Q: What sequence folds into this?
């Protein structure tokens, strides 16, 4: 443990001084303001995977790594739909998952929004319609906003969330 | 004899049942009028999922099976529909009446049931776990999956190998390169081509890159599940850095579309620098993490998988290696010449799986340095010949098996067995003698794929 603190004292806080960092900082400021204004400082997201390849989730997980650190802006991924404002839906809406997705949506208190994430829920990934696929998600749920990509990179997800915040 | 896979193919008037063991492949033909086979699960318990899948897919009856419940087809799936039959061509289904699924459960005084999922608490794939509990103690657990069942095997029928590629690389995002590698081997076989060494090295480099990203993520998440968040912050930075490197090299953060028959020139020296840096960071991480006793209190003796069970359940990958089983598809001359050393541990617990991952990251870095070279080879794929082709890859999760049969130039049958398909069936063996609070830790230390399992 002592080594860890030594390293910290010696190296200080590590940041990257790149163009990406600057863009990120600007977006973050805007998100924070919007979350404060429209969601009283805290936006709760329930992520629901309806049949993805898991890369979309991996990118959402990356949002909490030290580079992006979304929680600082008041955006939280919550464990229960009952704590959520937004359902962030990815994946293909499989036959087996669809009833559970609809159930989760029902559990979210009003007002609520659905944001689709990635190419899968809008049927733009290379997957085709089989008996086991119920996408597009918009056939089953009122979709307020879409974040495209396969998968969308963390920065694109952050941009997408900002667009959503501006829109509502 | 280790069981690798068991699956069916539809022929004219018959079904062919293929059973792949480590050293031989057995084929059995049964009639379509009376499609009955005997179970293999008495000898190889993991055969039961393969057999239940066959029943759902084709309507094949497993005569003496101890478990005849549907596997892929859940409560609202129309009965008597077997979508892998060639005659079934519909691309939509209506929900049928709800038929409850009977979970395996232990009954008794004070024993209660805990159900988790399919939507888990957190950013994670959907699946279901059913626990029988006596207080905090887990008595039994059943894993139930296939919520992500996308019908990929059917989706790929009638496509050429090239058309199938974008789907194959998206079966499991964490293992995209591994899936592409297996696909590449099948293309080479079907075209009767030998892969040039330089391409092989480049692809092997990418496969190790994918492995370290996956392992680094786990090296953060496992301690995080034991309440040590600092490790997640540290390791998730490393895995993000690695992902950005993968993007630099392939143009995509997950390496989608990275494996082909053309090499691009890389900036080798910056990659060397990156790998040197990572080597130092990992050395630091190791001394730091090994020195936190409260963490090892949670890891040691938690979720033990005995070596005998590895054998009995045909387990693969990190899970098998952490129980002292030297099984790795990379144990072959090409990898050995480039610095591969198999990593095993004996204790079979969370600690062992954590250590295997850590050692594998270190070994991968060494190999990646050997795989790097300036090269811009390009090869053309010759004509694809019809036939039945099989390939293996060692993904970050373990041994991946792929079989593609090509007829009239297009895919007649696509079958893939993700390493998770074997290991999910082993998970319940790690539960007894542990408390339910340890479940996330045990589950994370195995880190299995839902997408690759469910297909
Ligand atoms: S959109 Fe692409 S990356 Fe996301 S789950 Fe679908 S296939 Fe995977």
A:
């Amino acid at each position: 443990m002592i080594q860890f603190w030594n390293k910290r004292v010696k190296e200080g806080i590590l940041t990257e001084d790149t163009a990406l960092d600057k863009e990120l900082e600007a977006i973050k400021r805007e998100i924070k303001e919007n979350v404060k204004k429209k969601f009283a400082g805290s936006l709760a997201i329930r992520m629901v995977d309806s049949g993805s390849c898991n890369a979309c989730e991996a990118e959402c997980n990356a949002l909490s790594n030290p580079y992006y650190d979304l929680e600082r802006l008041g955006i939280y991924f919550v464990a229960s739909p009952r704590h959520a404002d937004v359902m962030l839906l990815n994946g293909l809406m499989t036959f087996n998952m669809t009833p559970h997705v609809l159930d989760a949506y029902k559990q979210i208190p009003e007002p609520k929004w659905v944001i689709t994430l990635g190419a899968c829920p809008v049927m733009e990934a290379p997957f085709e319609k089989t008996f086991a696929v119920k996408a597009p998600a918009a056939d089953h749920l009122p979709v307020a906003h879409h974040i495209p990509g396969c998968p969308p990179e963390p920065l694109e997800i952050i941009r997408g969330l900002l667009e959503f915040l501006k829109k509502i | 004899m280790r069981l690798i896979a068991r699956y069916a193919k539809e022929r004219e008037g018959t079904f062919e049942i293929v059973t792949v063991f480590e050293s031989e492949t057995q084929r059995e033909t049964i009639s379509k009028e009376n499609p009955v086979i005997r179970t293999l699960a008495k000898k190889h318990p993991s055969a039961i999922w393969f057999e239940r899948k066959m029943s759902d897919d084709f309507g094949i009856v497993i005569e003496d099976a101890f478990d005849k419940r549907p596997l892929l087809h859940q409560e609202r799936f129309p009965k008597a529909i077997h979508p892998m039959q060639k005659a079934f061509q519909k691309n939509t289904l209506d929900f049928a009446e709800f038929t409850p699924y009977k979970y395996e459960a232990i009954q008794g005084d004070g024993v209660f049931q805990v159900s988790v999922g399919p939507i888990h608490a957190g950013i994670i794939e959907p699946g279901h776990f059913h626990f029988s509990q006596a207080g905090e103690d887990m008595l039994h657990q059943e894993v139930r999956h296939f919520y992500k069942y996308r019908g990929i095997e059917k989706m790929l029928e009638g496509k050429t190998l090239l058309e199938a590629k974008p789907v194959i690389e998206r079966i499991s995002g964490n293992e995209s390169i591994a899936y592409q590698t297996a696909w590449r081997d099948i293309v080479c076989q079907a075209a009767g081509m030998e892969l040039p060494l330089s391409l092989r090295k480049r692809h092997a480099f990418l496969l190790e890159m994918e492995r370290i990203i996956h392992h680094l993520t786990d090296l953060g998440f496992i301690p995080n599940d034991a309440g040590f968040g600092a490790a997640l912050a540290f390791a998730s930075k490393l895995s993000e850095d690695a992902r950005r490197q993968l993007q630099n090299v392939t143009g995509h953060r997950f390496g989608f579309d990275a494996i082909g028959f053309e090499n691009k020139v890389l900036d080798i020296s910056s990659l060397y620098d990156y790998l040197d840096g990572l080597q130092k960071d990992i050395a630091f991480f190791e001394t730091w993490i090994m020195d936190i006793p409260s963490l090892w209190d949670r890891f040691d003796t938690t979720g033990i998988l005995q070596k005998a069970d590895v054998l009995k359940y045909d387990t693969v990958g990190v899970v098998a290696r952490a129980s002292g089983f030297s099984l790795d598809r990379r144990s072959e001359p090409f990898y050995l010449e480039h610095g591969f050393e198999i990593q095993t541990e004996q204790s079979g617990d969370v600690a062992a799986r954590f250590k295997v991952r850590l050692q594998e990251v270190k070994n991968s870095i060494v190999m990646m340095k050997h795989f790097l070279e300036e090269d811009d080879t390009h090869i053309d794929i010759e004509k694809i010949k019809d036939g039945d082709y099989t390939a293996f890859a060692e993904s970050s999760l373990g041994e991946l098996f792929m079989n593609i049969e090509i007829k009239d130039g297009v895919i007649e049958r696509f079958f893939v067995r993700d390493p998770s398909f074997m290991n999910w069936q082993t998970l319940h063996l790690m539960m007894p003698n542990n408390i339910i609070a340890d479940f996330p830790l045990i589950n994370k230390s195995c880190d299995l794929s839902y997408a690759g399992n469910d297909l």
In short: The first helix of chain B runs from residue 47 to 58. The pocket of iron/sulfur cluster is lined by residues A 52-53, 55-56, 90-91, 118-120, 125, 150-151; B 170, 173 (CB under 6 Å).
